[in-house]
Amino acid sequence: MTRVCKVLIVENDDGVRNTLANVVADDGYLLATLKTGREMSSALDDDDYDIVLIDVSQPGPEDGFALARVARERGCGVILVTGDHRHLERLQQSGEHHLLKPFRVTALTTLADKILTEIAAQCVRRKRSDGSLFAIRTA
């Protein structure tokens, strides 16, 4: 099934980033990849993404949780990914959608479909109130 969904992958590990990109592309999503979170804001300025897949452990001053806040403020759905189980409690408390590495491809696509359903519901609610068909993306 082809999905009309744009995914941005923010992952600093080249191997993991390439694997995630292959999985996402093979499942029919449109995608872009970035190595660091520092590049994410400009990428979100340049294009509209439905979902941003972010590795929790990021080089630099902002971790994946901070990047997730930025992506959500831009109207994107977020999936946080980590292989470090020390982040599990914080992930559960944050209420963020998340996956623990290693994960099954079906877990990723199921979660992405859930987020797209949530986004669509937000769009429908906005359509009823102001006629808009798209999620509001803030600066």
Number of strands: 5
Taken from the alpha-carbon principal axes, the silhouette is globular
In terms of DSSP E residues, the strand content is: 15-25%
Strand order of the largest sheet: 2-1-3-4-5
Known CATH architecture: 3-Layer(aba) Sandwich
Give the H and E element order.
EHEHEHEHEH
Number of helices: 5
What is the CATH superfamily?
Answer: Response regulator
Q: How many distinct domains?
A: 1
Mean pLDDT: 81
Global structural class: alpha/beta
Structural account:
With 139 residues, the chain is of the alpha/beta class. The chain has a single domain, classed as Rossmann fold. The chain is built from five helices and five strands. It has a five-stranded parallel β-sheet with strand order 2-1-3-4-5, sandwiched between helices. The C terminus is likely disordered.
Can you give me a brief rundown of this structure?
The chain is α/β, with parallel strands linked by helices and 139 residues long. The protein has helices at 14-26, 40-46, 64-73, 88-94, 105-130; strands spanning 6-10, 30-34, 51-55, 77-82, 97-100.
